[in-house]
Amino acid sequence: RYFHFCKLPGRVMGIRLLRFTSVVIIVLLLVAGALTALLPNIKDDKLPNLRREPKPQSQSALDSFTLIMQTYNRTDLLLKLLNHYQAIPNLHKVIVVWNNIGEKTPEEMWNSLGPHPVPVVFKVQSVNRMRNRLQNFPELETKAVLMMDDDTLVSAHDLAFAFSVWQQFPEHIVGFVPRKHISTPSGVYSYGSFELQNPGFGNGDQYSMVLIGAAFFHSGYLEDFQRQPEAVYALIDETQNCDDIAMNFLVAKHTGKPSGVFVKPVDIRNLEKDTNSGYSGMWHRAEHLLQRSYCVNKLVNIYDGMPLKYSNIMISQFGFPNYANHKNKM
Amino acid sequence: RYFHFCKLPGRVMGIRLLRFTSVVIIVLLLVAGALTALLPNIKDDKLPNLRREPKPQSQSALDSFTLIMQTYNRTDLLLKLLNHYQAIPNLHKVIVVWNNIGEKTPEEMWNSLGPHPVPVVFKVQSVNRMRNRLQNFPELETKAVLMMDDDTLVSAHDLAFAFSVWQQFPEHIVGFVPRKHISTPSGVYSYGSFELQNPGFGNGDQYSMVLIGAAFFHSGYLEDFQRQPEAVYALIDETQNCDDIAMNFLVAKHTGKPSGVFVKPVDIRNLEKDTNSGYSGMWHRAEHLLQRSYCVNKLVNIYDGMPLKYSNIMISQFGFPNYANHKNKM
C-alpha cells in the first residue's frame, strides 16, 4: 500500500504539476518569511502618531491613583501643572473639574499636543461650585484619589512617597497641609494653623485636619460624601468654602480616629503669583478664615458633636533627599 | 409615763452622779475634738520617712510601660541614668538586669536615697549573657516595655512622644536607632546603617530593623522570645551580640510587616565616655559589625528565609521642639 501511494503523484499529476506545486510552496514560504520580518516593525515606536488606546491593565487599580483637579479662571496654571502631574509615577488618570462655566475646555489643544502618558478627562460643570470636585465621578477607577488645587505644585518625589504612605494608611487623608481647630472656654471652636495656641495635649502642637487640596484619600469617601445631610451641601455652597473641612469631619466620624496623616513635603509650591489671569484664589478673601471657623461650628451642629481628633505624627521620608537625614550625634 | 422617766435620774442617782456623768461627757467630747484635730497631721507630708507602699493602681498597665535596662560594668552610668529615667511620664516600674556576676547590686544605696517615683527591681543574674534582658520577667506588669542600653540617654520629651507612637503601632518595635540589611548578588546579606548603599526601592534609604537598645515594644514579644529555636540562643551566646537582630526577625515574622517604626530623636546621647569604669561597650570590639552581618545570615538559615521588610517612614513630633517645625514656603 505504501508503494502504491508513492506512485500516485508521479503517475496522476505529472511533472508540470510537480513543478507548479513546488513553486507555490516556495512562494508561500517567502511570504511567510516576509510577514515574520515585518511583524516587529508594526510595533515599532518610530511609527508616527498611532493613537495608543489607553491600556487599562498597565496600572492596576490597586497600585495607582486618580488625580482630581478642579480649576477656575487659571487655565495657564492648570496646563503648566498638568504637564508636571501627568508624569507622576503610579498615576492612572487625570480628571479635570472644569468650573469655567460656558467656556470651552482646552481639550482640543490637549489632544493636539499628544500623546500623553495617561488619559485626561475634562468634566464640564454647569454651575461653579466648590464641591463639584467631590462628585463620585464614573471615570474614577482607582481606590486612591490624589486631589490637588489648581495652583499647587508638589514634587514627584513627595507624591510618590505620600502615595506609599497612603497605601499604609488607606482610611486616612494623607497629605501635605495640616490644620487644626481649637476649643475655647465658651465652647465655640476656632480654626487655624500653627500660629494658634497648641491644643495642650502634652508637648508641642497638634493637627486635626489635613486639607484635601494636596492629599491622597480613599475614593470611597467620595461615595460617602454623596450621602451627607443637605445642610452640609448648603453650607459649602453658601460659603464656597469648607468642603475640605466637611471631608475631614466625614473621615473622622467614619474612623473614630484622627482624619489625617501629615506628610511633611520637601518641595511644595504655590504658583498663584504666576498666573496671567490675575485671579488669586479664594483664600485671599477677607472673610476666608472667619468662614472656616464658622464652618467648624456649623458642622459640629449638623453632626451633633465634634468628631475631629488630634494627632502630632509628622512623617518624613527616611534618607531622602539627604541620605543621612536621620543621623544623630550619638 | 414620761414624767415618771424624768424623775428617775434625780431621784435614783442623785446630784453627785449627775455631775460625774456631765464631766465624763465633757471629757469625752474634748478627746474626740482633739483626735479630729490630730488626724490631718498624721497624713502630713512633713512627717519624716514614712515608707510609702507603691500604689499599683496609680499607673494602669495599659497606659504605662516598664523600663528594662541591662547593665554590665557601668554602675556609675546606670545610677546617673536611673535618676533620669525614674521620672519619665507613664513609667510603671524599672527592671535592672544585673550582669555584674558576683557583685552586690546598689539596692541598699538605692533604698537609702528613697523615696523613688516608681519601684526599681534589681534582677541578679547568674551568668553574664547578652540575652538576659530578654527574659519574661514575672515583675513585668505592663503591655509595653521600654528597653534601654545602660549608656544611652534619651530625653523625656522623646520618650513621651515615642510611647504615644507605640500606642498607635503596638505590634512594632518603636524606637530611635534604625538599621538595615542589604542583599548582594551572591545572596549573602550584609548589615549596616545609612553609610551602606540604599536597598534600591525608589528614592532614598530604607531601614529594616529598629534596635531594641532604645525602643518600645510589646511585652508579648518577650514571651515569644522564649519559644525560639535553640540555635537562636546559641547564636546570641556565641557572639554576645545580635539579640536585637533576633528580636527584629521575630517581630517581622510575626507581623509580616516591617518590624520597626523609626522615631527621629531630638535628644539622644551616648554617655559611655562619661564612665569611670573604663569599659566602653560591646560595639567597640573589632568584630562587632562583622558579627552582625554574620548573625543576619545565620538567622536567615535558622528561620529558613529573610523575614525582615523595609520601611522608609520616619516619624517626628509635630510642632516640637519648634512650634513651626512643619512650616513650608507655600
Write a structural description.
Chains A, B: Its cofactor is Mn(2+). Two copies of one chain form a homodimer. Chain A is α/β, with parallel strands linked by helices. Chain A has a single domain (63-313), classed as Spore Coat Polysaccharide Biosynthesis Protein SpsA, Chain A (Alpha-Beta Complex), CATH 3.90.550.10. Chain A has eight helices and 13 strands. Chain A has helices spanning 2-42, 75-85, 107-112, 156-168, 220-225, 230-239, 243-255, 288-302; strands at residues 65-71, 91-98, 120-124, 144-148, 152-154, 173-175, 178-182, 190-192, 209-210, 214-218, 260-263, 268-270, 313-317. Chain A has an eight-stranded mixed β-sheet with strand order 3-2-1-4-10-6-11-13. The first copy, chain A, has a three-stranded antiparallel β-sheet with strand order 8-7-9. In chain A, strand 1, helix 2 (75-85) and strand 2 (91-98) form a beta-alpha-beta unit. The longest helix of chain A has 41 residues, at 2-42. Strand 13 of chain A pairs antiparallel with strand 13 (313-317) of chain B, so a sheet runs across the interface.
Proportion of strand residues of chain A: 15-25%
Q: Tell me the structural class of chain A.
A: alpha/beta
Please give the largest β-sheet of chain A.
Answer: 8 strands, mixed
The first-level CATH class of chain A is given as: Alpha Beta
What is the domain total for the residues of chain A? 1
Q: Indicate the CATH architecture of chain A.
A: Alpha-Beta Complex
Instruction: Tell me the CATH topology of chain A.
Output: Spore Coat Polysaccharide Biosynthesis Protein SpsA, Chain A
The CATH superfamily of chain A is: Spore Coat Polysaccharide Biosynthesis Protein SpsA, Chain A
Catalytic activity (chains A, B): 3-O-(beta-D-GlcA-(1->3)-beta-D-Gal-(1->3)-beta-D-Gal-(1->4)-beta-D-Xyl)-L-seryl-[protein] + UDP-N-acetyl-alpha-D-glucosamine = 3-O-(alpha-D-GlcNAc-(1->4)-beta-D-GlcA-(1->3)-beta-D-Gal-(1->3)-beta-D-Gal-(1->4)-beta-D-Xyl)-L-seryl-[protein] + UDP + H(+)
GO biological process, one term (chains A, B): UDP-N-acetylgalactosamine metabolic process
Membrane topology (chains A, B): Single-pass type II membrane protein
Function (chains A, B): Glycosyltransferase required for the biosynthesis of heparan-sulfate and responsible for the alternating addition of beta-1-4-linked glucuronic acid (GlcA) and alpha-1-4-linked N-acetylglucosamine (GlcNAc) units to nascent heparan sulfate chains.
